[in-house]
Amino acid sequence: MGKISEEINDDLNFLGSHTLQPKWYKILKLFILLGFLLGLSFFLGLAHAALFFACFVVFPLLIHCTYRIKTRKFTQSWLDFRIEKDADGKPKRIGKHYYSAVVVSAILSFIISQL
Prior knowledge:
Blueprint: H1 2-17, H2 23-44, H3 46-70, H4 96-114
Helix pairs in contact: 2-3, 3-4
């Protein structure tokens, strides 16, 4: 069990420290998700919102794990995750594949929550 908690801590440290997304975006996306969940529960009910949230946690977790495995703990380039640094010495941002996967997971989560 200690190994899993170390891996989770590694991921949490990476999420807090990476510059692949602006800091304001890291915070904003939480408020976007919270607002969407509140709207969904208001208009469609708490059960639909809970199912959407459950699916939306699982799908991005799969995306994260895929990127984590394919990039060897974010140390190797893969798809739109690039290790090369820009002129300021910061890692380049994640691109279209990652965000497309997140949008698809949100759409799938919404569809599943309506079934």
